[in-house]
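Dear colleague,

Following up on Tuesday's group meeting, I ran the structure prediction for the three-component complex that the binding team flagged. I've pasted the input sequences exactly as they went in, so you can double-check that nothing got truncated or mislabelled along the way. The C-alpha cells for the whole assembly follow below. Feel free to forward this to whoever is handling the docking comparison.

Inputs:
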Amino acid sequence: MVVGESKPIEEILAMVADFDKILLTGCKGCVTVCNAGGQKEVGILASALKIARKKEGREIQIDEVTLERQCDPEYIDQLEEPINNNSYDAVVSMACSVGPQYIAARYEDLLVFPALNTTFIGGSLEHGVWAEFCQACGACGIHNFGALCPIARCAKSLLNGPCGGSSGGKCEISPETDCVWHLIYDRMNRLGQLDKMANVVMFKDWTTSRDGGPRKIVREDLKQ
Amino acid sequence: MKAQSNLERVFAAGHFAVTGELGPPRGADAEVIKEKGQYLVGLVDSVNVTDNQTAVVRMASMAVCRLLLDMGLEPNLQMVCRDRNRLAIQADLLGASALGIKNVLCLSGDHQKFGDHPQAKNVFDIDSMQLIATCKKMRDEGKLINEHELEGVPHFFIGAAANPFADPFDFRVTRLAKKIEAGVDFIQSQCIYNMDKFRTWMQQANDLGLTEKCYIMAGITPLKSVGMARYMQKFVPGLDVPEEYIARLKGVEKKEQGAEGIKIAIEQIQEMKEMKGISGVHVMAIEWEEKVEEIVTGAGLLPRPEVS
Amino acid sequence: MRLNYPSNVKIVNVPCTGRVDILHLLKAVEDGADGVYVAGCLEGDCHYLSGNLKAKKRVAYVKKVLEEIGLEPERAEMYNLSAAQGTRFAEIAREFTERIRELGPSPVGSGAKSGAEAA
C-alpha cells in the first residue's frame, strides 16, 4: 500500500490560518489501513484544529467526509454534494498526494491542501510500524535477489551485493536499518542459490522508472 | 600494459607497490594541495585523491589529480557513484583521461546521510561494480555503455576497494571475484587492523586464484591515539579494530601514542610484504600526510623504484 | 463509604479504558472541558489484558496533540487504581481538579468544566 503520515498539526494550522470554513476529506484506501488518513484520523485532526482555533478565539467550521478512494474520478463525485452546497474556503485532503491532486483537477477554483506526507510504498511490520519495500522502478526483478528488493531497501540501491558499510546485518546509515543485502545473502544461502550472487549484474535500465518521465498505463481491454 | 601508469609499471616489474592518499580541501585553495602533496613526493608510486569523501563537499578529485600531475606525482582518481549518473561518470572519465589521469578507483561512495549535505538527492544510477565495467568497456572496446564508439579511447588502470571486515564475511571474497570479473586491475583494501580476519580473507582469495588475476594492496592507516582507535572501532561501520591494538596504545604515555601507532603500522606493512598474494600497501595517513615518510622509511619501502 | 469528590468532575462510564479513544478525549477539550483524565485499572490487572495500557498510549498521544496546538499537556492525564480504591478515586479527583485550577481555565472556552472517563 501507499503509506503516509500526518503532517505536524502546526503545519496544517498554518495552511488553514486564513480560512473559517473548510472541508476535510479522508480516504478509505491505503491511508485508512496505515492509520494516517481514514475516517478516524479525519475526526481527530478536525477536533485538534477546532481546539486550536477556539483557543485563538477564531472558530473554524470543519466538515468531514471520507471517500471510498480519492484516486478514482467516480469517487471524487461524492464531493459534489458537499462542495456545491457549501462555500468552503478550502479543501484539506488526508489521502496520499494523489487525492488532493484529483480534487484540485476537479475543482479548478478551489484551494486544496495536503494534510499528509506521502511516505513510501510499503507494508506494516507490526501494529504501528511500517517500512518501505518498493520504489516502483517499473521493472521488477526481485526474483534475482531472493525476492527482496535492493533498489528500495538498500540505501545505495546497489545491485551487486553489500557494500563495505554492512555490519552485523545492519546498514551503515542506521543501526535501525537492516542491510537488505545481508538478508538477500542469507536467503540465497538457504535457497541454495549463492552461485547466482557471484554473477555481475549489469546496468539497470531506468526508463521504466520515474527517470523516464511521469508514467501512465493504458489498458485497451478495460478502456471505454 | 593497459594504461602505462606508473603504478601499473611498478606492479608489472614485480615491485611491492606503495600508494598514498590525499584528501582535497574544503575550499578553492590550490596551495593546500601543493603542501600536502609535497609530503608524498618520492615516497609513493601513486596518490589516491578522494572524491567528496564521507560525503563532504571538497575540491573536485579530477582537478586535484591534475594539480598533482603538475607536481610530478601520479594520481589515482577516486570516483563515487553517489554524486553522478552514467552521463556524468562517462564524461568525467573521458575528461580525466584527456588531463593525463591514468588510474581510476571505482567506488559506490559513502551515503550522504553522515556528510555535510544530508539533504542532497543521491544518484546511484550505477554501482561500483558497474563503474568498473564502464571503465573497462571504454578502454577495451572503445565504447560507451550505450555501445557508442569513442573517438579517442581512454586508457585506465582500473582499481576498486574491498572491505574484508564488512558483513556477511563469507560473501566478501565473492564480491572480490565479481570485481575481477567486472574488470578490475588492482584492489585497495579497507584499513586493516584485524590481521587474523585479513589473513583468512587472503587465504580464501589465494585459494580461488584471485590473487593471480589482480594486484591486491593492503590498506594501512596509522592510529594516532586511543581516541581515534576507539572512534574507528565504534563508529565507522565495516572497520574492525581489535582490543589488542588499543591495549598497546594505552600502554604508552599519551604523547607517545602516535609513535606507537606508527610502529604498529610498520609492523603490519612488514607482515604484508611477506603475505602471499599481497602486491603492495595503500597507506592512508588520514590528515597525517607528514608521517608517511616515517612509515615507508621504517617499513623499508624506500627508495621507490624507477620503472619505464 | 460515602466519599466526597469535586462536583465539577463529570464522569463518563466505559466498560474498559481500552474503549476510550483519542477522539473522545479531544472532543471533551474541544467542547470546553478544562481537563480530561482517564481512570483505569491498575497496570497488569486489566480484565481484557491490555485495555488500560492502550488507554495510556492514547492519553500520551492526546498530550502530544495538546502540546502541538499550544495547550498544556497536563490537561490530559492517565491514572490507575483498582475498583476497590474508593478513597484513591476521590483523591485523584481532588488532585486533578487542583492541577487544573492551577493551570486556569482552558482558553478553548466554557462548557463542562472538567471531564473524566472511568472504568
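Chains B and C do not touch (no CB pair under 8 Å).

Cheers,
M.
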